[in-house]
Task: inverse folding
């Protein structure tokens, strides 16, 4: 029982740290997207990555899910409006900082007369910050926008 309590305490501490990082990162990403645009924001974020990528263990998948949930929570409680692109960039960057391989994906669809775009992060082919049932409605670009795997370095 004490191991479960200790594990819970550690994961709670990790989640609190992730929440704080995401809470601070999301407004910075939002401002950078507004002032610099998507490509220059992504390049800037990549500049601050020094951790080797590639972890795909069961623990990495669980931690990736925790990271996505934490970023979404920080986005809900933070300043500004929620946005799939800034949430996805934050998840993508935080996972890369932890050495977890993931892909930033963009997709489009035409809904009636409206053109819509969407961003999400996949880890091991599984979407982290979206429901798998929603994604088939978006036509994803063939290549990932930003892949964080050993081949991308």
Result:
């Amino acid at each position: 029982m004490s191991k479960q309590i200790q594990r819970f305490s550690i994961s709670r501490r990790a989640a609190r740290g992730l929440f704080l990082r995401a809470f601070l990162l999301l407004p910075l990403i939002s401002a950078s997207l507004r002032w610099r645009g998507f490509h220059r924001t992504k390049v800037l974020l990549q500049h601050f990555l020094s951790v080797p990528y590639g972890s795909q263990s069961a623990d990495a998948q669980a931690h990736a899910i925790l990271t996505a949930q934490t970023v979404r929570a920080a986005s809900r409680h933070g300043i500004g409006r929620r946005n799939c692109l800034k949430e996805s960039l934050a998840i993508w960057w935080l996972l890369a900082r932890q050495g977890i391989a993931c892909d930033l994906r963009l997709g489009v669809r035409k809904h009636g007369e409206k053109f819509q775009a969407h961003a999400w992060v996949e880890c091991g082919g599984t979407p982290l910050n979206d429901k798998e049932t929603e994604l088939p409605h978006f036509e994803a670009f063939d290549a990932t926008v930003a892949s964080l795997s050993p081949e991308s370095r």
